[in-house]
Design a protein that fits this description.
The chain is built from 6 helices and no strands. It has 128 residues and is mainly alpha-helical. The longest helix has 28 residues.
């Protein structure tokens, strides 16, 4: 990539595009992609990098103590927790409806694990 193009990408803050541009240019030439196809791939790379950064910022802001998942939760440990209800929460309907969820109970019943696992589910929800 030439210096002028690199400088333009830097000024426009297109670091994702800058990282993959050489490969995409070679791919475009090899596969005879038209301009629109090339641009679509290049911009998809930028969106992917931005999405990864957004997820990382969100996870950092959430200050999760540990990396918990729903698959790791021991459902037999606390049989009063309804698996279907938790997976419904993890689907994110309450977020789209702008509703709150409160997990209440005594210490050691799995509230933190479940809330962190539900929070991690949202890293797979597209933001763009």
């Amino acid at each position: 990539m030439n210096a002028k193009l690199a400088e333009c990408l830097k000024k426009l803050r297109l670091s994702g595009l800058a990282q993959t541009l050489e490969v995409r240019l070679q791919e475009a030439a090899a596969n005879r992609l038209d301009h629109a196809e090339f641009l679509e791939l290049a911009l998809a790379d930028e969106l992917a990098v931005r999405r990864e950064r957004q997820i990382a910022r969100g996870l950092k802001a959430a200050a999760f103590r540990e990396q918990k998942t729903l698959e790791e939760f021991h459902w037999d440990f606390n049989r009063s927790i309804k698996k279907k209800q938790i997976y419904d929460l993890a689907a994110g309907g309450f977020v789209r409806q702008h509703k709150d969820v409160l997990l209440a109970g005594p210490p050691g019943v799995g509230k933190s694990h479940l809330s962190q696992a539900i929070g991690r589910q949202f890293e797979v929800v597209p933001k763009f």
